[in-house]
Amino acid sequence: MPRILIIEDEAAIRRVLVKILSEENSSYQVEEAEDGLIGLEKIKNEDFDLVLCDIKMPKMDGVEVLEAVKKIKPEIPMVMISGHGDLDTAVNTMRLGAFDYISKPPDLNRLLNTVRIALNSKELVVENKRLKKKVSKNFEMIGESDEISIIKDMIDKVAPTDARVLITGPNGTGKELVAHWLHQKSERSNGPLIEVNCAAIPSELIESELFGHVKGAFTSAVKDRAGKFEAANGGTIFLDEIGDMSLSAQAKVLRALQESRIQRVGSDKDIKVDVRVIAATNKDLKHEIEENRFREDLYHRLAVILIKVPSLNDRRGDIPLLIEYFSDKISGEQGTIKKSFSDQAIKMLQEYDWTGNIRELRNVVERLIILGEKEVSEKDVKLFASK
User: Which residues in this protein are found as 4-aspartylphosphate (predicted)?
Assistant: First the structure.
């Protein structure tokens, strides 16, 4: 049932608006507020699908209400009610985010059309927001084990915040998937997700890669170049294998986290950045700190939230689901008929020692699909999945 709030200091106008809306659609739940302060308090504490708000009111005028609502609940469409002398102001409220405005006394057809369109727009906004929260199928996290359920619950709690996250776990367990979930379920999902593999970049180039450089900063710096932090502005940067980052680069990352500012290599000019940092490593960073290979202050900046991704050996109950998922995905990619796995074949795969974790399991499933029989059997596993 759509809930509509009317904020209007003139009781007669409120009664007219309530009567029009109630008679037009009995499913509308219409509430009233006699001034802007009361109306804003209702909006803060209750859920409304549409607000009709007068512009000229005592205590708090409609423009102030509009600006406040756009900060706390921007998805609610605001239709402004304007007197003859308020038309210029009403037009200006459109620039501030108002959905539309109607003049006093309200024209019946204009009012009802505006309300219907505004309510439809609210549904579209909410649906778009919901779709953006869904994670791309390329980054699905498959599993129903307690270990995976805990991680999914933690992601749902942490993703909407800007808290920094450190993801730990062995190679091949899916740390990158966790990072994608955190980004795609966050309020930054419209912004970029920039991934940096710190282990794949030579130590002498990591600072330039992260923070950019100015022309002439070093021999091959033939022009100014922005770094990954600038590219991630307004979004998320994922620092994978951060345990392999040099100490000098760690110091600059620490400054970026502390001050939300960076400097390009060869420059003393500060560049402000708005970036959420997610990091991952397969190393024991506390041991690295003891060995003076990782900064303790950076660790505490990164590890606001710790997510430990379990090895596949610690979640063997998910292996049948993963086999089904990979079989379906690989068959689709290769344009072949999907193969099933016998119960005995699945049982054998569950008993393997998966040192390469999910990445290794995927490779084995692909090999069995290519080389195995129509139904992958225990014999196929013995022949083609042996270590």
Answer: 54
